[in-house]
Amino acid sequence: MKMKLYTLATLVSFALFSCVSPKQLKQAEAKFGELNGAYAELQGKYRALEEELSKSKNQNSNLATQKAALEAQLASTDKQLDYVKQNNNTVLNQLKDLSVVTGAQAESIRKSLENIGAKDLYIQDLQGSIARKDSLNMALVMNLKGAIGNLDDKDINIKVDKSVVYVDISDKLLFKSGSYDVTDKAKEVLGKVAKVLNAQPDIEFLVEGHTDSIPMRGGALTDNWDLSVKRATTIVRILQDTYGLDPKRMTAAGRSQYLPLGDNNTPEGRAANRRTRIVILPQLDQFFKLLERKK
What is the value of pTM for the model shown? Predict the structure, then answer.
């Protein structure tokens, strides 16, 4: 495509030099400059899409590896269960022949062996729930990345770690320096995140404020604890008042400087540490229900 543009430029230039006025030549050159700029912009978008596709392929590969490991573990458990079941009757018959084991004791042992099968079903249900949750988390991450678009990875980072979804947003996108006053860019970013969260009404999440280690100097804020909490509550209020998120789904917290991502002794590290983190909370009630003993 680039070669075609250069060929077209050569032909246009030749034609303009041959039979058009200088004014028309300048207009044609300006038009060519616009086309060349549009082409460069399309190239940049294409490279960004290629990088996103590569990241998605790596994530899919990691998920496939985890799935294979779980399937192997489940297969091993199934083999152990089959072995136990095959020996149940033999064990019970042997116990009944022993004079020291009463009928009631044998019945108790039989029920205990039956519980092994029930526990295996419980383990399978739990593994299935974990797999469904991981799938939902990956879908949520892709929806968030799609909604936010091609923002710089240094400014916003979305990831899954230990089955929890984290959205880290740099303070320079959200707040003015050393303040909890939001920037004009903040509502644009938060609006995109809120759109995805509103589409998942069952999800609860935590908004955390994080700072670097440089102490606050003067002003209404006491210290970095104060700043981190104020920033978290500011974001929660915007999500509630501007974008209509149910306040029952949200928790605001300040973490100050004590969970850094980078080295606070370097400008780059401090910039990484100044962030707002949205944590998609796991739905623990679903797992507690699985833990309940079936009557």
Answer: 0.54
